[in-house]
Amino acid sequence: MESPQALVVLSGGQDSTTCLFWAMREFGSAQVVALSFDYRQRHRIELECAAAITHQAQIPHQVLSIDTFAALGNNSLTSEMAVATELNPQTGLPNTFVPGRNLIFLTFAAAYAYPRQIHHLVTGVSQADYSGYPDCREASLRSLEETLRLGMDYPLTIHTPLLHLSKREAVLLAQELGILPLLASTHTCYEGRRPPCGECPACRIRARGFAEAGIADPLLNL
Amino acid sequence: MESPQALVVLSGGQDSTTCLFWAMREFGSAQVVALSFDYRQRHRIELECAAAITHQAQIPHQVLSIDTFAALGNNSLTSEMAVATELNPQTGLPNTFVPGRNLIFLTFAAAYAYPRQIHHLVTGVSQADYSGYPDCREASLRSLEETLRLGMDYPLTIHTPLLHLSKREAVLLAQELGILPLLASTHTCYEGRRPPCGECPACRIRARGFAEAGIADPLLNL
User: Between A49 and which of A12, A89, A163, B158 could a Cys-Cys bridge form, CB atoms 3.0 to 4.6 Å apart?
Assistant: First the structure.
């Protein structure tokens, strides 16, 4: 078997799932592998969704453990702290912000890619994300790409197919890729509920994207 | 108590220990904290040395767990694979190379620094290191600094006091800082032996540095 060309960082959410199928179209299904991180996220359902999606897509899937974020503490994605809908007045960021989380994910993805001679990383980050995480911005990602190339002395490209898409356009891309039904297997809700709570910021953004695209979210028809 | 200004990434080796005392001189002892990583290194003695050194220096010391490198496998620093003195013909690097290890350490250090409002990171990396790890080069570190600033939207400086020093000059800096006796508490040997094996690449480089400085290594007089 030829070695794969592209690695998709798969959270189990709508965006990274869309990116998985984008990569399968761009590189060919046999050339794609998926990597998820068990970083002690509060909602294990994300990892279950990632496993279900890769199983349906017949894509090799690896889960790597990262125990460090939980040790760092101080955020609501890995602790029992309630998810605030307000921004932290000190940082201007929601308390779901884990500083550097995407930098760590992509650096570990690169370390995984290196011995396997995979040169393309794909991530579902989007600047349209309401929360404005600084590690989801184009300048951060281009800088990280350069850091990884230099720091591993290895040619790597970080692909960000959703970076400049609105949530509406992301839904339309999923439609174009023919994976709307599969989005029923993705997880978005910050409250970890399935069917989703419909009230948390993540649910609201997802709902708005589908509404603006004029498409029914298959997740709501379970 | 004022919040600290500088965080030193402390491995327990000669170089990071010298950097700890460099930081104490530059920022003041009360302004420095030390961070070590338990990444399932083969030789736990490194972490014991880091604890002993910070205890002697009366510097707050935190150990953060990283279980991911062991899951990535494929290197001799976290597995039982023998340490080769030869280079890997495929990569031109010794098999102690963990791709991106310093990138990960510094990114987690930045994530630790962020909520504590620490803006200075100090690392003992050196370009004089025989092995030429690409993540110890100046270009990689400057790029990483930029990536962390952008990706966390937070002003950070990475200090690398040993970057351009030869091993001889690093020993002379330790002498200038008055910490030569303390270097008996540091660990260098890749074989994890104390007293050191004297034969592995790390022992040989350390010995050459002391020899060229005309100073006896206190570690050898235990």
Answer: A12
Query: What pTM did the predictor assign?
Result: 0.90
Q: Where are the domains of chain A?
A: 6-221
Strands (E), chain B: 6-9, 32-38, 61-65, 120-122, 157-159
pLDDT by 10s per residue, chain B, length 222:
567 999 999 999 999 999 999 999 999 999 999 999 999 888 889 999 999 999 999 999 999 999 999 888 655 545 544 444 455 555 555 555 678 999 999 999 999 999 999 999 999 999 876 567 899 999 999 999 999 999 999 999 999 999 999 999 999 999 999 999 999 999 989 888 888 999 988 899 999 999 999 999 999 876
What residues in chain A have their Cβ under 8 A from chain B's Cβ atoms? 64-69, 71-72, 74, 98-100, 102-104, 107-108, 110-112, 114-115, 134-135, 137, 139-140, 143-144, 146-148, 150-154
The span from the CA of A182 to the CA of A86, in Å, is 31
Comparing C-alpha atoms, which of B183, B212, B199 is closest to residue B56? B183
Residues 6+ apart with CB under 8 A from A153: B134
Q: Is A152 in Cβ contact with B135 (below 8 Å)?
A: yes
Among A63, A76, A143, most B C-beta atoms within 10 A, so best to mutate, is A143
Here the ipTM equals 0.89
Kindly list the strands in the beta sheet with B61-65, ordered across the sheet, starting from the edge strand earlier in the chain.
Answer: B61-65, B32-38, B6-9, B120-122, B157-159
